[in-house]
From TrEMBL:
SMART domains given in the database record: HATPase_c (SM00387), HisKA (SM00388), PAC (SM00086), PAS (SM00091)
The species this protein was found in: Candidatus Electrothrix communis
UniProt KW Phosphoprotein keyword: yes
One Pfam family here: HisKA
EC number: 2.7.13.3
Catalytic activity reported: ATP + protein L-histidine = ADP + protein N-phospho-L-histidine
Sorted UniProt keywords: Phosphoprotein
Domain PAS span(s) in chain numbering: 1-71
Span of domain Histidine kinase: 141-340
PROSITE patterns: HIS_KIN, PAC, PAS
Signal peptide annotation: none
Protein name: histidine kinase
EC top class named in words: transferase
Length: 340
C-alpha cells in the first residue's frame, strides 16, 4: 500500500539506507532523474540525485549526509538544480528527512523534490512585467508634456533656420539641434509604447509579408543575409501590424549589430498546436503562432541574458536600452510571450 501511494504522488521521492545507497525511487523521480528504479537501486544516491548550485555551477554536497548528520528534516537550497541522466538542468525545490524504525533509530533517508523551473520562469516574467509597468507610469506622466515641449523647440528651430542662409555656421548648428530634437521626439514615442497610449489596435494580419518586409528593411545594404521559412498553413494573427513590425525590426537590428562583419539570420514562423510545449502559454486556450529568429552572431553572455528585457539596459555605446523592452511590452500587450 505504501509503495502504491509513493508511486502515485506527483513529487519525486528517493529513499536511501544509512550508507547513502539508493533503496527506492518513485515514478516522478524516475522522470526527473532519468533513472529507472530497477537500475538506481544499490547505487550511491549522489549518482542518482546529482544537484548543483545554480549560481556557481559547482556540485552541491550530498543531501543524504547532511540529513544523517542533522538527524532531522531539512529544507535544502532554493538555488539547487538537478542534472538528470541526459545532462540537462532542472530547477528543483527539495527537502529531506531521516527514516526511523519503531525504536526511533535512523535506518535511512527520504528525499522529496519537485520541478519548479516553470514557477521560477513565471516569477521572472512577473518581475519583468512589474518593471515595465513602472516605466509605463513614468511614461504616461511625462511623455505627452515632454513631446509638446519638443514640438515648441522644433518649431522655433525651423523658424530660426528659415531666416538664415544655408552656408552660415549658425545654419549648421541649427540643423544639428533639429536632428537632436527629432531624435528626442522619437524617444518619447518609444516611451509611450509602455503607457496606456501604446495599446495595440488589432486586426487580422498575415505574417509572411509583414515579417519579411520588416526584416529586409533593416538589413538593406548590410552584409547580413536573411532566410525565411513560413508554414504552408500558417494561421493569420490578430495584431497591430505596426507594433509587430517594430518588434521584428528591433530584434533584427540587434542581430545585425552583433555581426558587423556579416552573417546570416533565419526567421521561422509556425503554428503552435501543442500549448503544453509552449513556454508560459499553457493557461491559454487561444491559438498561437511562433516566430523564431536565429543568427550566426556571438550570442548573448549568460551573465546578462536575464537582463536584456529590462528598460534602459544596453550593451551598446549609443543604445538607449529600450529596444528589447519595447518588444517585450508589445508582445505582452498582444497576449503573447517572448523569450531567448
Amino acid at each position: 500500500r505504501l509503495s502504491v501511494t509513493l508511486q502515485s504522488i506527483g513529487d519525486g521521492v528517493i529513499t536511501t539506507d544509512v550508507h547513502g545507497k539508493t533503496v527506492f525511487i518513485n515514478r516522478a523521480a524516475e522522470q526527473l532523474t532519468g533513472w529507472e528504479n530497477v537500475d538506481a537501486v544499490g547505487k550511491a544516491s549522489d549518482e542518482i540525485f546529482r544537484i548543483f548550485d545554480e549560481k556557481t555551477g559547482e556540485k552541491a554536497p550530498c543531501p543524504v549526509a547532511r540529513i544523517l548528520r542533522a538527524g532531522k528534516r531539512l529544507a535544502l537550497s532554493r538555488d539547487a538544480v538537478l542534472q538528470p541522466k541526459d545532462g540537462t538542468k532542472i530547477s528543483i525545490a527539495d527537502s529531506g528527512a531521516p527514516i526511523r524504525d519503531r525504536e526511533n533509530q535512523v535506518i535511512g533517508v527520504v528525499i522529496i523534490f519537485r520541478d519548479i523551473t516553470q514557477e521560477i520562469k513565471m516569477e521572472q516574467e512577473r518581475g519583468k512585467i512589474r518593471k515595465l509597468e513602472s516605466v509605463g507610469v513614468l511614461a504616461g506622466g511625462i511623455a505627452h508634456d515632454f513631446n509638446n515641449l519638443l514640438s515648441a523647440i522644433l518649431g522655433n528651430i525651423e523658424l530660426a533656420s528659415s531666416g538664415i542662409t544655408e552656408d552660415s555656421r549658425v545654419s549648421s548648428l541649427l540643423a544639428d539641434a533639429q536632428k537632436a530634437t527629432e531624435r528626442a521626439t522619437k524617444l518619447t514615442y518609444q516611451l509611450l509604447t509602455f503607457s496606456k497610449g501604446g495599446e495595440p489596435i488589432k486586426e487580422k494580419t498575415s505574417l509572411p509579408d509583414l515579417v519579411s518586409e520588416s526584416a529586409n528593411f533593416v538589413l538593406h545594404g548590410s552584409l547580413v543575409s536573411c532566410e525565411f521559412s513560413f508554414a504552408d498553413d500558417l494561421w493569420m494573427i490578430l495584431a497591430d501590424s505596426g507594433q509587430i513590425s517594430q518588434v521584428i525590426q528591433n530584434i533584427i537590428l540587434n542581430a545585425k549589430d552583433a555581426m558587423p562583419s556579416g552573417g546570416r539570420i533565419r526567421v521561422e514562423c509556425s503554428n503552435v498546436k501543442d500549448l503544453a510545449s509552449g513556454l508560459l502559454l499553457r493557461r491559454h486556450k487561444e491559438n498561437f503562432v511562433r516566430i523564431a529568429l536565429q543568427d550566426t552572431g556571438v550570442g548573448i553572455p549568460r551573465d546578462i541574458i536575464d537582463n536584456i528585457f529590462d528598460p534602459y539596459f544596453t550593451t551598446k555605446k549609443e543604445g538607449n536600452g529600450l529596444g528589447l523592452a519595447i518588444c517585450h511590452s508589445i508582445i505582452k500587450k498582444h497576449g503573447g510571450h517572448i523569450t531567448v
